[in-house]
Amino acid sequence: MKRALTIVMILVNLGVCFACSAKDQGTKFERAPKKVELNIFLGGMDRFRDQLDNYFIQFAEKERKEKNIVVSFNTEYPGNDNASQILKTRLATGDVPDIFNIHAMNDLPDYYKAGYLADLSDQPLAGKLLDGIKPLVTINNQVVAVPLESLEWGYLYNKKIFNELGITPPSTLTEMRTITQKLNDHQIKPFLLSYKESWIPQLFLSLTVGGLVHSSHSDFIDRMNKDQASFAEIKEMFDIIDLVNQNGTDRAFEVGNDDGAADFASGKAAMWVQGPWDADGIIKVNQGLEFGVAPLPINDDPRSTMINVAVSTSLAMPPDNKNKEIARDLLNYMLDDLASNELYQSLKFNPVSKKHTYKPYPWVEDASSYVNRGLSYKDLSMPSAVKDEVGKALQAYYLTKISKDDVIKALDRTWKEANAIANKNK
User: What does the UniProt record say this protein does (predicted)?
Assistant: First the structure.
């Protein structure tokens, strides 16, 4: 009886212990979880939908495990051409997403002045940013966004075609003309044209004005902001635009970004005035394609032939976000020490964190070789309205519906209008 009683007492004690353990675990795991839906606006990022949606699921699993919070997502991926206007309308009407993407160089100052950006300086992510990247998402000593795309770009070129013809990336416009002629002589289209979406011809603005401002027209932006300059002063920007348009593929207005990536991957042209942000789409079509990134020559001054360095797509959150805690957790997770390595590598983006240890892709190293030689400049801050206008204007210019002077007048007018709005809001 004593032996039986002892066994019973042991079982009773074990039962008490198991019950206590279950009770403790229940405090963390068995109570009803808090449910949160994050509204995330990702304009122009549809080509990365799979990678980003999967990463958000990983984050949700982490929040469920560590905080007993069930996170769901309402994600929007509007196209590049109208994403900016959609977001501005949403913000103006009070329909503010929990997290949204903006262009670090073009949009941060305006969104910061309008009070739409939360200060993230005290978050772990701020201390992880590379020294060269952090200033690009910082205003008034406040980190206000998480950089996704850190870019070093100019134009893309097919290395196989270049190597077979003994061509190397040119450093002057005259050299580019020679290369263009050699490609034509071998029945190879020099440039891929994909003007269906206006943001693609708009890229000429950053490359041409950027190169000229950092070589021979250093005060152009400052004087434009004071209504004291005109694009007529840098009319030479059309020289490279004309060369590309006159030596490009057919049916330019039937080809958008995705089709352009597929055509370039298929070798339909030797060069494409486009950035490495399309690397994922290109490689999906032709995994074996070797392509490089080089600076676009705009005149015969090699000092103007430079790589554009920028942070474009960045993630931010509003300061009065009702889901502030969870949104902040997600922004920190975007630079998670381990998980973000795989994410950024899968997106084929440049490293932005001190914790990023993955090896950059060859085209990234191509662009970096120019940067390391001092042949680069920080992307210019120009009114977003001007960039919108130049894309549409260059589409019309390609179709010969308007002249160079018409483009110049449109850009001058749009910049002055942007100045008037900015001065009014001061």
Answer: Part of a binding-protein-dependent transport system for a sugar.
Q: Which long-range contacts (CB under 8 A, 24 or more apart) does 167-174 make?
A: 169/292, 169/294, 169/295, 170/297, 170/305, 171/295, 171/297, 171/302, 171/305, 172/297, 172/299, 172/300, 172/301, 172/302, 172/305, 173/239, 173/240, 173/243, 173/297, 173/298, 173/299, 173/300, 174/300
For the record, the structure tokens of 228 come out as 């004291």
Tokens at residue 264, please? Answer: 């370039």
Domain boundaries, the chain: 28-149+312-335, 152-309+370-424
- 377 has pLDDT over 80: yes
Distances (CA, A) of 17 to 20, 21, 228: 5, 6, 81
Segment 175-203 shows an average pLDDT of 97
Just give the CATH number of 28-149+312-335: 3.40.190.10
Instruction: Give the Cα separation of 256 and 222 in Å (integer).
Output: 34
Over the stretch 104-133, which tens digit does the pLDDT of each residue have? Answer: 877 888 899 899 999 999 999 999 998 888
The pLDDT tens digits for 304-351 are 999 998 888 899 999 998 999 999 999 999 999 999 999 999 988 888
What is each CA distance from 188 to 67, 154, 211, in whole angstroms? Answer: 58, 21, 28
Q: What is the pLDDT of residue 23?
A: 43
Question: For residue range 12-37, what is the model confidence (pLDDT) as tens digits?
Answer: 343 444 344 444 444 455 688 999 99
pTM for the whole thing? 0.77
The superfamily CATH assigns to domain 152-309+370-424 is Periplasmic binding protein-like II (3.40.190.10)
CATH topology identical between 28-149+312-335 and 152-309+370-424: yes
